[in-house]
Queue: 4 jobs
Job 1
Amino acid sequence: MNVQDFLISPGEACKRSGPHDKIVLSSRVRLARNLKGAPFPGHAKKAERVKSLDILLPVVAGLPQLAPKPFAEPLDKLSAQDKQILVERHLISREHAAKGAGSGLVLNPEESFCVMVNEEDHLRMQALRPGLQLKQAWLALDGLDSALQERVEFAFHTQYGYLTACPTNLGTGIRVSAMLHLPGLVLAEQINQIIQAVNKLGLAVRGLYGEGTEALGNIFQVSNQQTLGESESEIVERLNKVLLQVIEHEENARLSQIEKKPRVLLNHIGRAYGILANAHSISSKETMNLLSLLRLGVDLSLFADLPKAVVNELFLLSQPAHLQLRVTEKLDAEQRDALRADMLRERLRPVQPPDAGKLGAKAE
Amino acid sequence: MQCQVCKKSPATVHLTQIIENQVKKVDLCEACAKEKGVNDPTGFSLADLLLGLGASQKMEEANTATGAEVVCHHCGFTQADFKKSGRLGCSECYHVFADGLDALLKGMHKGTHHRGKVPPSLRKVVNQEARLSKLEAALKAAVAKEDFETAANLRDEIKQAKKSLQST
């Protein structure tokens, strides 16, 4: 089956909602696990990788948590475009998308679990939830992992815990992360302070697509870095606490902008709307940054006829691989910018300009 | 002072970060600092950078002290491979390269002992090992206090614990 037929449509996928989803776009927990005795994927020869994949793919696909009928395929069955779509949906990492034969993917129909086989480790299992739901994601993934451990034996060391290819993931193998939309802190120029404070707590702040990527569209990923010496639930709890504080800072930053600099705020949002609704060529980067402001306008109730789900959908549809889906011929960057602008104008045509009068009235 | 990344140019950017009350320092040349995004706090995290540097050096020191290059008998992974990739070759490598590992992990993690989930098949063993190390610590303390009666009891308990650990 084609993965693109399996995926939930962007419109539907963006309707998902969860607690604190004005600021927290999504929560993710991942566990790294490796088979006992088999070489890690980075060091394994192709035949060895294929062997681990042949063991793991059917076992993972057969887990009751992923029923009914998960998508389970080796990556060489997927086109480059398929893989890029999965990256843009945040279902697989960019590193995984670069892999082919000997690596695989298992995804459940709700897209709440996604397991990468032979990424950096034999298994990178992820539980995904909309909004701030780290605890729920961890509990779900813990269950999946336990069910899997009844079927295969993982590499485990009594002192070091679960063994991983990279010592940074050792022990619990857990990476707990949340994707945050923080336009208020960016506009208030407080974002660097927050990032530094979060760093000091041993947590990492990264861009939209994880390690080494830019924070486009005021979207930041916060995750734990340490995996050894603390239990999974302690890590989840710690990150949750920090995130609640970041949320509070973001809310305060938005309120103080409304109070102190309403014109600056309206100017940003109005211009963002103006460009997005009227441009005839627009880059991915500019789109992301302007959509972020549009989303802020929606949060502040400035757009009566623009649901947040639509803004989220536009974020996704503006990405290169999702744009490419609309046409058959291969697009170059310039054509993509034109197509992106056409799509945005079309989708924003029914949307009225931001209603400045709503700004003061907004207090919830 | 040399740049810790390229080891060529003189270091002009000196960065200190306090992560969980531990002071971490790196010295970089301007080009490497820029490349690693030191000036852009959004994309930079010292822990990521430190992993590539101090980590492999520490392990190298520990393992080359014995002379010959260490090779994993199970998968053929070498010290040089680790230095290049920052990754290990297989689960056995954690035993082969154990010598330098604790020092490396100390700088990287909250502790050097796993405190999380344990596979069901090993739960018993892990609990017993934890109990054993607790008893051994208590024995040491008792001997230091010259409380030999307690020490004798503890010694017997340790003997028992070791026996049951071997039988599982």
Note: DSSP finds 15 helices and ten strands in chain A.
Job 2
Amino acid sequence: MREMIVSELSQALQDIARSFAHFLPRLIVMLVLALVGWIIAYVVRALLRSILRLIKFDKLSDNAGASQLLNKAALPPATEVVSRFVFWVAWLGFILLGISVLGILGLQEQIARFFLFLPRLFVAMFVLFFGLLAASFFSRAVLLAAVNANMPSGRVLSVAVRSVIIIFVLSIVFEELGLAEQTMLLAFGIAFGALMLGLSIAFGMGGRDLARRFLEKRIRRGKTEENEENEDELSPL
Amino acid sequence: MAEESFLTDDFLRQLINVGEVDILVGLPTHNNSKTVGAIVQTIQSGILRGFPRERAVIINVDGGSRDGTPELVTGVSIDDMRPTSNRFALRTMHSISTKYGTSPASGVAFRTILAAAELLRAKACVMLSPDSGNIEPDWLSKLLSPIYRNEFDLVTPTYRRHKFEGILITNLLYPMTRALYGLRIREAYSPEFGFSPRLGCQFLEHYVWNDGTDGAGVELRFTTAAITGKYRVCQSYLGEKVPIERRAADLVGALRQTVGALFSGLETDFPIWSIVDGSKPVPTTGPDHEVLMDPLRVNRKRLHEMFATGVAELESIFQSILSPETLAELQRIAGLQEEEFNYSAELWVRTVYEFAASYKNSAINRDHIIQALAPLFRGRVLTVLRENRNASEEAIEQSIEDLCLEFERLKPYLLQQWKTRE
């Protein structure tokens, strides 16, 4: 009996030692991969930070309105956020690669899904950034055009343009990430519809006087055309 | 023949047929059929009077006219003038035409004319605009003689203007180019000017033509290139400037063509203008200015309203362009009643300099910066109208001179802003 116990115990210890002997190189490989990954991610972060500073990414981010969002969230400047994000994604990628080397069942599939998700994440970030940039550009263009044309409510128009573009961009981003696609599609439809309806009502209710003045002006134009032209003919050049 | 790539084969053939010339007249057009015939006759008359022994060519560069403008240019014969003139050309006078596109682009038109001048080895060239309603035959002599006979390189015009016309020139372009480049050129941006082939060739070779702006404001950059290249510049008085059509002014378009061109040149010219101190007059034939004092209706209320609305609505944009002090001062005056409104010379100069510094290094699109200046310019126009409502010609000229001196005095402020925003 005693011999049996000793035999089983030694067998178990041998199995553990054998398993450990099998596992140890994989663990070392994982640690090496994590270390190498950290070094590579660190170098990539430094390189990316330099490139982003060179292309004045913070200014682009200011322009897109992304810096304001980051400030409100007490986050560092855009260059720092992007370079840190890339660092963590790269390092995490290496760590997961290392974990997959360990051969733990069940984790393999999750890790593969993570790597498949990465390109979509980058595309979504790309779309979000340039979407914000486009929203900022077009809303500013509308605001300037409205002010220089002496149109009332230039700021409202500008905010409306910005909102429409951002809603559109966010719907693309969520679709790309594959997050609640149906819900986002529905939410986008509702939000867009509500915005258009709101604008229609706002223009209808708020623009009554404007429309009346516009029509009166058109009708009276025949009488006042000469005076109005005189008033506007001051040439700047 | 480096310019062959953008000159059409047909145009090159026409140039070869012309051969070498002494005088070249450049005439960019776009749907000018109503006036171009008379203008070509005036040009021919001017050449007969001033340069009867010289070989001359009129080169029409058309931006896609659909009203037969080019045909009218080439169709005008020197014989058409015989009934009214007893002068005869001793050499053949050519009129040729080329199309460069389907829409007008002043840069492309000017580049084509410069390339043609180089190929034809012209000794003196002049640019004229079909939009000027009162071109006289003697304009040719006034713009060409200093180049052909006195070896000047650039002749800019001076005009007689209404006291309230050309405020962008008198309140921004003239004072700023004078303060920055050190020469008192009244009309740094003008569609009419004369130039020498050596200045033309130098500009043709070194100017960045494909900057995406279609060469808007290239005339102004030509003037600043002449100054920075230390070419001989003079002015010639042409008389009254009358546009053919009196129409609502496109202020933003005018700002793009002039202020945009001026600001965009500041970066490359920085080593030159940053060390210029004060300003010098340039040789001038005739008066360097004349003012018409006729009454003119201007809607001051609208100007005031557009300034106040602009300052309020564009606050977020101005925060990226202007210093907090300047913006606060603008917001203060925007709250004033029309009768009390005063956009002082100092505040105007600071505003313009901060816009110039911001243009170089701003996150905001450059065209948006120029557009944002429009409401502020309207505020300055309102002040000019108020200050000069009953002023004499001398007082108006004195106020322009004071503004120029303010631009010169505050030039260190521009340099400081320039360095701060790097």
Note: The interface with chain B takes residues 56, 59-60, 62-63, 137, 140-141, 143-148, 150, 154-155, 227, 229-237 of chain A (CB under 8 Å).
Job 3
Amino acid sequence: MNPLSTFKYIKNNISKALPVLISMMVSVLLIYLFSLVSKSTSEMANLMDTNLFRKYTIVSSNNEELIPKDYFDKITKDNNVGNIVPLISEPGYLHYNGIFGGMSIAVLNIYEKDISQVITTLNVKLTEGSIPRLNKNEIIIPKKYALQNKFKIGDYIGSEISSSYAIKGKFKVSGITDGPVMLALISSNNGAIPRDTVINHSILFSVKDIKDKNLINYLSKNTPKNVLIMDYYSESKQIDKMLDSMNALSYMLNMIIILVLCISLGNLNYINFLNRKYEFGVLSAIGYKKSALYFKLWKENSTVCLLGYIGGILLSTLVAFILNLTVLYPNGKFIPMWSISGAIIALFIPIFVSFLSLIAPIKELRKTDPLDVIGGVI
Amino acid sequence: MKPLSALSYSKNNKKKLITSTISILVAVSFLYVLQTFVKSLGDSMYELNVNPYKNHMTIQSIEKDKPVPDNILTMLKDNPNVENIMPFVAYQTRYRIPGCFTNASILGIRPEDIDYVMKKHSIILKEGRLPLENHKEVALDYRVSKNKKVKLGDKIGNSIDKDDTLNGEYTVVGIVEGNDFLSFMPYNTTITVANTNDTIVVQKSILVFPKVSKVSEVDNLLLSFPKKEVAVMTLSENIKSYNEVASTMSTLDMICMLAVIVMVISVGSSKYVQFFSRKQELGILNAMGYTKKELMKKAFWEVLIINLLGFILGVIFGWLSSILINDGAFGAIGAVSVHFSSKGFFMALYVPLFTTLFTLIPVNRMISKLDPIVMIEGI
Amino acid sequence: MLFKVENLNLIYDMGKEIQTYALRNINLSLEGNRLIGIMGPSGSGKSSLLYSLAGLKIPSSGTISYKDMKFKELSISKSTELRRKDFGFIFQRHFLIDYMTVLDNVLTPINDNSMKAKEKALGLLKKLGIEHLAGKKPHQLSGGQRQKAAIARALINDPKVIFGDEITASLDHSSAREVMKLLDEYKNNALVIIVTHDASILDNADDIINIWDGAITSIKKKGMEGYNESAINL
């Protein structure tokens, strides 16, 4: 190592670099962990909402009137439409506690013979038990929900068990599913409504290519008054709106941390620099240009900040791993171990701090006259 | 001012005082604003979801086509703690609060019952009129109308706004004012034929009004009814589900604590290093005859002044910011905007408290190890 | 007897193979209000003796008593209090606190900002010829002016003993004479002990202790032959 190299400085001044390193590490831990938590929330929102609509679009009438025939024909005749499943009703939802608040798992009521096709299209697997039988008050629930509420096959859910359930009646858990969509399904047609009637009133239709917006654009533009559409684009827009406030909090937190760090580490760096004034004065006197000295100062500062950043990312990953293993997975929750956007947002901290916290020391270095230093005035 | 007093030090080191104070001010105000924001969210949810149940409770038949069993109705009518029961229809309409989707209740009430219901909930008609029977009309709570940005004559429902949880299309004919976020529609006895997208099924439901100060008795009565036959919503159940949701706010508390730790470490480190650079000064004072206890006292007061100043200014700034932010995010959309939060105050207090501790512990160690001779001889 | 030193030894690197005697077998009695000089070359132990007498250095063996109080029997806080009340220090480097004005620096030992104290401080600064710099900060002063401010600081609490360590090292000749003239006045009210290697400033000293290699080689009284010779010549 060259005598004036950055690593030599850090190696010989660990006690001075440590406060900056630790501050940086803990700040990055906070921001990155928060971004992992945010990512978990948005992934849960996908699991519970948008992923369903990547594969299926729901079209239904909001009153006794049927879906107008021409509108309905447009759907059935479109090439981008796969299977069409009649939707008997949407009897409620199941409440799931996410990391950042409660979420709703949709409960759909469809005919028993359509259930296998639906879960296959959604890439959801029945990991335990069996699909619900028609009119037997049975329900299949997602694995994470089952874990959170400690449900197993044979347990009961519904308002008859507790009024905290937003689904009326009493349903026996007949199966547990796992996959990219968290959805609960029942098969209940006590009114014996014919399939043809239901299919003209409310349907789920599978979409072959979600990027092909032709049908959706038509359906959205020409929607009859009594028809409701729930498609991928409108649902993801809603979810984005909900996640907006979390993103806003993340940016605000980031900015506050950067501000606090810039001021306090700036202070710290200034004091550390004052103790090295003699060193820099001498270097300047023996022939190092001021620009080289500014660069040396910045390199040392940014290296410490970067090391803190790396330490913070590693520590966050470790914390996420431990949290997942001990607390979250057993309760049907999770935090992802990695988030590129989170890492980039957290990177702003060492970048800004390494520059801004050097303003005061560099100002001081600029007005340092090497003669004053070597002449013993300072 | 005595030359060695903390005030004298502050006066002579204004720049250091300002930079240290700003760090603490920012940390304190951020934590305070965050807590008031969260409280605004929580209080809005509480008023929206729990408040209505302070004056009424509901009971619905489990089975779609069947009304509430007669024996249950009789028990309610005969109960001395129940003041009144009446049929109603439960509707909901989307109510937007930052960070979550929730719904406000709309009660479908018969014309002969509406005055009673409004009186019990201390609701008055502010503008327009009440909805007429058999008309697709609604009288909205003023905060709900603010949230939806609608006025008299406008329409609401998922035929107008896709995201609304209210099926169909209803004209706003009146604006009501009360504490319970309740709106009113005409009473309808429509039973669903095929399916609907309602999350609350439109069927015969009963509103139960307890007598004054008999709320818990009626609460217990409703909870005692067989769950196979009826689904009840009481005040205690509502508070329970609200608390379950509110418990997830602990994630935000964890974030706050982490933020406190970050700020304490960074601000505390810079304060400690500042003292470290004054080792010579402290050593010479010790040589001159100031005891280590006196030096520690001096350090304590200097650190305290900065932290106290930062805290006070931070709380003031935080309070002002929370007025601005929460009024904009919540007040403007008809939700509850909180400006004062004791939890926010105490959480923000952690910053100066732990920063003082984090600074003084190593400073104390440094002072106790101080050897004036080392300073004098420049070793 | 103001100071009594018995069999004083100050050893560095005790317990190691090579031990360094900063002071060896010092026996001394100092009393009265007088000016005492301690002379010797660099590394002879003169500053060690000075700071041992001040209670700042703890001897490896032997005793030092001040007014019949043995330093080793005093608690740390008691000996610190003693320094504050009875002693005044003029160090080799000025050690002024750089964020304080000259006036505040002078008032530091008594930590008093009353009018009476300020007047006293200004009086001292006037005697040293730097009254006009009372409101300035140390970095605005020359080296000599800083040292004069440090001298004023040492005198503000009317010390009974004044310890000076190479106090004229950073002063020009005429300033050095001014300072020594002032200390000469103080010797009527206090015991002034000055460490120096410059014999010329000790013209008015009552006693000169010559020290060499940690041991006292001679103590000359005023008027004695060889009084003002440097220890090296002995």
Note: The longest strand of chain C covers residues 20-30.
Job 4
Amino acid sequence: MFKNKTIRNIATLALGASLTAITFANAEQIPITGTVQSKCIIQVDQPGVFGNPNAYTLTTASADGGRTASTRVDVTLADSYYVTFTHPDSFSSSPSLPDVVTWTGTTQVSTVSDATGMGTYETSKIVNGSQTRYDMTATGSTWFETEVTASLGGSRAFPGGTYTAMVEAECIAK
Amino acid sequence: MRAVILAIVLAFGVSAANAHEMTPTYPTLVPSHVDGLLKATMQMFNRRADVEYYEVGVFDENFEPVPFVTAYNIFKLDYQSHTSFDIYIRASDRDRAAYICSRSKIRKGSEIRTAVSSKICSKIKK
């Protein structure tokens, strides 16, 4: 009698446990949704740093102790964007300067993720004054390096202080 | 093989820290709840750790400004945050408006010597 009751209890518990397991097996499903769409992403890999090779020059050239600004552009739709880099023609912040500053700058492709599709980016670029424009005809990532030099007029020395200049990277849909 | 995977991880890991993205690339103007105004909805994602503020603008084909209204022309977008915003333009400017652009705003006191200002322009679908 006692044995039968124990067996019955164990069976009841087992049935309850399996029902619970079924309940857990049917637990809520959490949806994860997303949309894939074309886009252009501008990623600043490394801001530049001015080197000071002589009293009247500030430059990001690595040979002169500077560091070029490096920007990566990711494009997910071919032939849909232009990328334009504009090197600065003034400091966004600096000490008071005793003379006019002359600016020069260049932007060039340093690395591409698709050598076949992006191989002509550098040769096909259009330079107009301080702007360099690239036609992004392929999908993938392109790394650009921008080098900037500022020379103070009359070979006068740059006053001591912090100098900041802005390179503008634009991605414009065609 | 390991080296290739590591290189990919490093490439994405390092560069993903400082990105500016805005979608859609080709937004559509749709009628808004106000008569005579059209609306486009844009999304932005800030992965630039050095940028907290962005400015939006509407421009014609020659990048001349076109009047528009939005909640904030310059808004704060924290690092790794998404936002969605509506741009309203007059129906009479429909043919003139060509681009919706967002531009990163860098603080004047930034210690970075040559900062990169990023600007992304979406083209309004005609």
Note: The helical segments of chain A are 2-25, 115-118, 121-124.
